[in-house]
Write a structure and sequence with these properties.
207 residues; alpha+beta; globular
Length: 207
């Protein structure tokens, strides 16, 4: 199989055309009141990071709507919750503070994008504002905003992301089966099924 690779921005622009004026002027460097409202309604975001060598990672973060704490017009904080302790994104931030975030609101095809510089904070007064179900975060990702804008709905519309008629959660086997198939584990399939059962797994969200 052969392909033709694009190797310069000039080639890219020749293929795609020039940027629409509205797409250029939508960038901001400070939170608008509408941005604050979006963050207050968003229960989920994706955080992209890369290490010093450019190896990338994208990590999901989710909590009740409004979990992103607004420190001021140019700074936000995202609490960490119990997880698998890999800390891939956090380790990247220690090596390279550049981050990109996408905030979603279920049912909305548009998203809010934030790019900036991040740091890890292990204690701050606003941690008391981040308590959920008795869990006070042990650290937070603090992001200094350099660029913020609303992203158009086309990708979510094309994918039918919020249309239940397009959903196919049973297209693949259970999560336990997937893990057992691709990973060497000490647990049996039955033990993994019990571990990932919704009733049992939900008890681990904040504990």
């Amino acid at each position: 199989m052969s392909w033709v690779e694009i190797e310069s921005e000039a080639e890219l622009r020749e293929l795609l055309g020039e940027v629409m004026p509205r797409a250029v002027t939508k960038e901001r460097v400070r939170l608008h009141e509408r941005d604050r409202q979006w963050l207050a309604a968003s229960p989920f975001c994706l955080i992209a990071t890369s290490d010093a060598d450019g190896a990338c990672d994208v990590s999901p973060k989710g909590d009740p709507a409004g979990f992103t704490y607004v420190i001021d017009d140019t700074t936000i904080a995202i609490p960490d919750r119990p997880g698998n302790r890999r800390a891939d994104g956090f380790r990247n931030v220690l090596a390279n503070p550049r981050v990109g975030l996408i905030f979603l609101i279920p049912g909305r095809d548009e998203t809010l994008r934030v790019n900036g510089r991040a740091r890890l904070v292990r204690e701050a007064p606003f941690f008391d504002e981040m308590i959920v179900k008795g869990h006070r975060p042990r650290l937070a990702l603090v992001v200094e905003i350099e660029q913020i804008f609303f992203h158009c709905a086309k990708a979510f519309m094309r994918g039918g992301v919020w249309k239940p008629g397009t959903w196919a959660p049973d297209a693949l086997p259970s999560n336990a089966t997937l893990i057992k198939d691709v990973q060497a584990t000490e647990e049996t399939l039955s033990e993994l099924e019990a571990y990932y059962a919704e009733a049992a797994y939900s008890k681990k969200l904040y504990g």
